[in-house]
Amino acid sequence: MKLLGISGTITGIKPFIVVQKILDEVKQNHPEIEVELLNLRDYDIQFCDGRDPSTYTGDTKKVIDIVSSADFYIIGTPIFQGSITGALKNLFDLIHPKDLRNKVMGFIATGGTYQHYLVIENQLNPIAGYFRAYVAPGFVYLQNDHFNRQNEIIDEDVLQRLTALGEEVVFMQKALKAPKSDYQPTV
């Protein structure tokens, strides 16, 4: 199983730090899971123009392949002007819906005010719904006060919620991929 972390911005560092933190914990607690971090700032990605995703080349093709080949995701974005980044929206536009169907997604977002936490519920969850992906319920929103001047996460409650989010996506992914004979529903 491959967990892909996505830092969905080409500016700023906080989403990268938060996604990396979750990936590090998952790798430590679940060594059987392969983890990879996709930092959008490291790629020169074309704007989606509506063509078939298989026709893109270069970095755009690499990123599409990386995202499409993952089994589940931790996706992070800063909130700018009350919305996700254009870079992350462009990434979602480039991916064929079938490549995200029935995959687990966990969301984190960072922002300058406490009010922007609703962007996860109002924008990211509907996008995941469009893809027919499964969303971990424990998303995490981090505000500037949760970091120190070195951009280290200093809020203990936030750290615990990040750990819980990592465990949720792993639990959901394993449950969804378990052989049918291992599933014993309780009535």
From TrEMBL:
Keyword annotations: Flavoprotein, FMN, Oxidoreductase
Entries under InterPro entries matching the protein: Flavoprotein-like_sf, FMN_Rdtase-like_dom, NAD(P)H-dep_FMN_reductase
Flavoprotein is among the record's keywords: yes
Example of a GO MF term: oxidoreductase activity
Stored Pfam families: FMN_red
Residues in NADPH-dependent FMN reductase-like domain copies: 1-145
Flavoprotein keyword on record: yes
Name recorded for this polypeptide: NADH-dependent FMN reductase
Source organism of this protein record: Domibacillus mangrovi
